Amino acid sequence: MTTKLIEPSNSKLWLAAIKPPMYSVAIIPIWVGTAIAFAETKRINAPIFSTFLMAAILILAWLNLSNDVFDADTGIDKNKAHSVVNLTGNKTLIFWLSNLFLALGVSGIFAISWWQQDPTVIWLVIVCCILGYSYQGPPFRLGYQGLGEIICFFTFGPLAVAAAYYSQTQAWSRTNFAASIIVGVVTSIILFCSHFHQVEDDLAAGKKSPIVRLGTKTGANLLVWLCGSLFALTIAFYALGFFPIWTLLIFGSLPFAIKLCRHVSEYHGQPGKVSNSKFIAVALHFISGLLLGLGFVLPIG
């Protein structure tokens, strides 16, 4: 059973349910893709950037809320006090609210495609939405087969970063693709870390997450390699001439990677203590993505 760290009567429960820090998952791909577009074209379309940013946040809200609904269907969240469905007791309301957010978000992307008279961005985002639905949505529920991290990698990495870049340039870039790999990996790390504290609930619901399959100790060891890959890939792409030297600023996020790996290594088998690892992972995601984008912007001028 997942340890309840927050009492139901506490106002912090709603903050845990809404998960404000998690929205960096929507912001960072747009930031990095746009930063690279700016570095390569020396210009930025601010209305498109702001529209895309708001649309991405709305689509992520849909994803978070709809996942709560789908998890309520399987019963995997019965011990999760900070589920929006459990907090409201109204699964139907949350379902339709999530769909409203999706409609608003996709409308913003449609607007961008209309302005550009080019459907490429909307098709990329639609693929992202389909993959996002397949994670928990019936009949797919691919997250229950341990495929969530792979879906997360492509959705918030190559696809989202490519869409952000294309929305500014209507072109493709190998540099942008290289950067999207790093963004995809660090986003998948967040989801990977979210499994350590809920192994028993996952097993009870038949969810074969990577941590269920590997065990918490092996998962903790694998996390070290995943975090290390962020910095190894950056060095490699710099050496290959894809990245400017300023992208090595990403090493400013190394303390967060070290903290995350040490924390999970020490507490991987203790649900009550390891449960906050995903928030350390969110901090790693935000800082590394922010610094990576800055690495492309700073050489301008």
Give a written overview of the molecule.
This protein is mostly helical and 301 residues long. 73% of the residues lie in helices and 0% in strands. Helix 8 packs antiparallel against helix 14. The protein is globular, with a radius of gyration of 19 Å. The termini are far apart. The N terminus is likely disordered.
Number of helices: 14
Major beta-sheet overview: none
Q: Number of DSSP strands?
A: 0
Specify Rg, calculated over alpha carbons. Answer: 19 Å
Please indicate the percent range of residues in DSSP E strands (runs of 2 or more): under 5%
**Fraction of residues in helix:** over 70%
Ends distance: 55 Å
- Overall mean pLDDT: 90
Globally, the shape reads globular
Order of helices and strands: HHHHHHHHHHHHHH
- Enumerate the spans where pLDDT stays under 50 for 5 or more consecutive residues: 1-10
- The class by helix and strand makeup works out as mainly alpha
Q: How do the helices and strands line up, and which of them pair or pack?
A:
Elements: H1 12-18, H2 24-41, H3 46-74, H4 84-88, H5 91-116, H6 120-136, H7 148-169, H8 174-193, H9 199-205, H10 210-214, H11 216-239, H12 254-267, H13 271-274, H14 277-297
Helix pairs in contact: 2-3, 2-7, 2-8, 2-14, 3-5, 3-6, 5-6, 6-7, 7-8, 8-11, 8-14, 11-12, 12-14
